[in-house]
Design a protein that fits this description.
Blueprint (H helix, E strand, L loop, with lengths): L5 H4 L56 H18 L12 E5 L6 H13 L11 H7 L6 E4 L8 H11 L9 E5 L7 H12 L5 E6 L10 H5 L2 E4 L5 H12 L3 H10 L4 H9 L1 H16 L3 H37 L9 H49 L12 H10 L2 H19 L4 H14 L1
Helix pairs in contact: 2-3, 3-4, 5-6, 8-9, 9-10, 11-12, 11-13, 12-13, 12-16, 13-14, 13-15, 15-16
Bound molecules: zinc ion (ZN).
The site of zinc ion has 9 residues, from α4.
Length: 451
């Protein structure tokens, strides 16, 4: 395309805690990614819309991932033979796995489906109907544990406790499965605790780690070397649209628009197709480029973007924060007056402080995620301008503002569009590296205005 290709194929790399990369260019899956795809385990498998050719299947929600699914099916079948006491070829089943892929590609969906297949009572086919499948998918199976970090990291104490429990024999007689979502958030010590378990796994224990990539920033080289990697790809928009229609009953035209706008992120596509507030926030973000008419407008746009991310984050946790606090206070017997109540309250203060710390960490992460989603949308706009300028044979991401991106393409040079796109990516990296969001976003807006 006559462009410095590196800029699109390898956007500047940074620590990627909240960093979904927008553009898997030229067939290469984005290397670094973020956590966003995790929320909202899809409908239960008993849902008839959730079946393929009339047969329930734990892998049905993995969109556009035929090859990885085949790998997992084979491994689960081998695992079932191990349980049955049969000989299996070396390497047919593995005790430690890493699921990688861009955000929304379904890393945790894949891990959960595989966990269900391992617990499936029908020769490990992952029927989606037996008790093992159901309870594993519903996160209530006694032998399947999920580590979902709410804050910015997974600490060593949590990991030690987990490793200890995972070493016990599976109560259901099949496998102990530990699913670690966002394994890129392991602290170094927690990683070391995990490594010990992976190096000498108990005979019936399986670790499933989800990370954006196998880059050393995301997962230590030693852990990586002991795991089998399942690389998920960014599903094509057509596959995402198909699943929205089939599974969630979204009208085909809405599904097609949402799938394109979500840039391959299944969860985000679903939200856009149903949640008017999410749609409104996206529209506000996509209106930014045409609002930047001067320095003052840049500062206003920056402040609006940050406030919107804060509001989104606050909204998502306000209720649960309050509920958690009430529950903890009740558990601690707040308001007691009897003998020992004063001492109990002193201990309680510590626990409440601990809860507040956790909630604050969760809020920080949630705010970063919301801001990052906005930046991905914005980057998508400049990417659309660029592909229009270059007449690249690819579809635009934001079809509903194609008129605006087309107009910008007629006005800006490719070089200045590229500078704008780079400014968005640089802003994401800066925030990732703990630059204060308002400073990073203001700097970005100024570049977006000047070009
Ligand atoms: Zn089953």
């Amino acid at each position: 395309m006559g462009l410095p290709n590196r800029t699109i194929a390898n956007p500047p790399q940074g620590r990627s805690a909240c960093n979904p990369r927008p553009f898997p260019a030229s067939g290469e899956v984005t290397e670094r990614a973020g956590p966003a795809g995790r929320r909202g385990w899809p409908a239960k498998m008993s849902d008839p819309r959730n079946t393929i050719r009339g047969v329930s299947d734990v892998f049905a929600d993995l969109v556009g991932q035929d090859e990885p699914v085949e790998t997992l099916r084979r491994a689960a079948a081998a695992a079932a033979r191990v349980v049955a006491g049969d000989e299996v070829a070396a390497g047919a089943m593995t005790h430690a796995w890493i699921f990688t892929g861009p955000p929304g590609s379904g890393r945790s969906v894949a891990a959960r489906a595989f966990a269900a297949a391992l617990e499936c009572e029908r020769a490990g086919i992952g029927c989606g109907e037996c008790h093992g499948c159901h309870t594993a998918l519903g996160a209530t199976h006694a032998d399947v544990r999920f580590v979902v970090p709410e804050g910015l990291s997974i600490g060593v104490n949590d990991m030690r406790a987990l490793v200890l429990r995972a070493a016990s024999a599976p109560s259901g007689g099949r496998w102990q499965v530990v699913v670690i979502e966002d394994a890129d958030r392991l602290t170094e010590q927690a990683g070391n605790a995990l490594l010990k378990a992976i190096e000498e796994p108990p005979p019936r224990t399986v670790f499933l780690l989800c990370t954006p990539s196998t880059h050393p920033d995301d997962i230590s080289v030693t852990i990586r070397s002991r795991c089998r990697v399942v690389a998920l790809r960014q599903p094509p928009a057509s596959a995402v649209a198909e699943v929205l229609t089939r599974r969630d009953g979204v009208a085909p035209d809405v599904a097609a628009w949402a799938a394109a706008a979500a840039q391959g992120h299944v969860g985000r596509a679903k939200r856009l197709s149903r949640d008017t507030e999410a749609r409104g926030r996206r529209e506000a973000v996509l209106a930014v480029p045409r609002r930047l008419t001067g320095v003052g407008a840049c500062y206003e746009a920056a402040s609006a973007l940050i406030k919107s991310a804060e509001a989104e984050a606050a909204e998502s946790f306000a209720e649960s924060d309050a509920a958690e606090r009430v529950a903890l206070e009740q558990a601690l017997g707040a308001g007691g007056t009897g003998r020992g109540a004063a001492g109990a309250m002193r201990g309680a203060a510590g626990q409440i402080k601990e809860l507040e710390k956790r909630q604050k960490s969760r809020a920080t992460r949630s705010k970063r995620d919301a801001l990052d989603r906005a930046l991905v949308d914005l980057a998508g706009f400049y990417r659309d301008v660029l592909v229009t300028t270059m007449r690249a044979p690819v579809s635009v991401v934001h079809t509903d503002v194609a008129a605006q991106s087309g107009a910008a393409a007629g006005k800006w040079t490719a070089e200045s569009t590229l500078r704008r796109l780079e400014a968005v990516l640089a802003c994401r990296d800066a925030i990732d590296q703990n630059v204060k969001p308002d400073i990073a976003v203001e700097a970005m807006m100024l570049t977006l205005w000047r070009g």
